[in-house]
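Before our next group meeting I need something from you. Please put the record directly below this note.
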Amino acid sequence: MHTLTYSQLLKGNRNFRNLLGGQFISELGNWFNFIAGLGLVRAVSGASPTAAGIYFACRLLPFAFASPIAGAFVDRFSRRQVMIVTDLLRVGVALLFLMVSTADDLWIAYLAMVLLSTFGAFFDGAKNASTPNLTGKEGLLAGTALMFSTRFLLMAVGSALGGWTAAMVGYEAAFLVNAASFAASAYLVWLIPEEATRDKETAERRAEAPTVRPSFRSEMREGVRYAFLNHFAFTILIMNVMWATGGGAVNIIFERAGGVYFAEREAWNPDMAVAILWAATGLGLTIGMLIAHRTSMILDRRGRHSTFIGWSLLIHGVLFSAAAFMPTLWLFALFVFISRAIVGVEYAIQETLFQQSLPDYIRGRISTIDRGAELTVFGASSYFAALAMFYITPMTLTIISGILSAAAGIVWFLRNPTEKRFRESSKPFE
């Protein structure tokens, strides 16, 4: 099968360009909000690690809990309308942060983050389920890499700009940028035709029998059953959950290592130090995603997808642990960058194979169940990592985080002991 390059996909597919553009703008605003919101919580709480842990939990856990519902919802109703409505709702929610000025107002920041996260689960569910239909089989790898690489590029650019804006202009400007970004995203999604978000077979089935569909609860159960009984889907699920046991600590590591440890040791502005670490993460993931296309072509020729995925997960975790031994913020950021570049290549290839293996009628449910389970553990990991800061250093936490993340590679090899077993379980749905 001919695989489209990045330029071929972008030049020949206006609908995908609009979706990508909407994500680009909204993700930029999201990272302005994240850095500014984190800084605001730090400022009004007196740099309390507990407050930071609650903030991260509010960002991650609602997304996780809403994801299974969102998955069934976007498989059942208009994916385009879900994206537009949730974008418009987030315009108002993003402005709630402007009401936070003292520690007594922290509940507003927490509530706003819960709402942003919940609406984001529905938006992401609709977007992820629509992407394979917008790209087609030939453009799925390029589309997946572009969707995630631009997201991670905005992690780098948005967090850096957000840190600069918070430090130089104030938190309010970042929250206004976030609100405006959601409005722009809604407009770009509105330009995408409804029929482009589903494959032809599913659309025809929905049109022919709109009144005989199973109940919403039955469709949710169907998604859960598929996720646990399908070998490849369940492998991805437990592997991502394992990764999240260590990956969730990254939020606290960057906050304490950049905002406190290196800020005191090297006299960094706390917001800028945190932003540098997130920028290193974003740049690493972006570069990894962008070279995934060529890497996949090599793996196709050699038949080494399974081996590559497993070893990439192991090596990236080891390198992240090694960052704990670096004496400066820049060296710490360098190891973070390399680690994330490696896992960026792995994730683009893994996610493409995963999406190819899922039928359209159930794709929203499976992808959001996987994402929800991962983020549940990710959020819990963030919170317990925050509590651990009363007993261990950020550098010790970095070592633990890397080891736990690397264990996802062991899970992968246990579930896919041979390349043949991997090819059989990940065979695309026909």
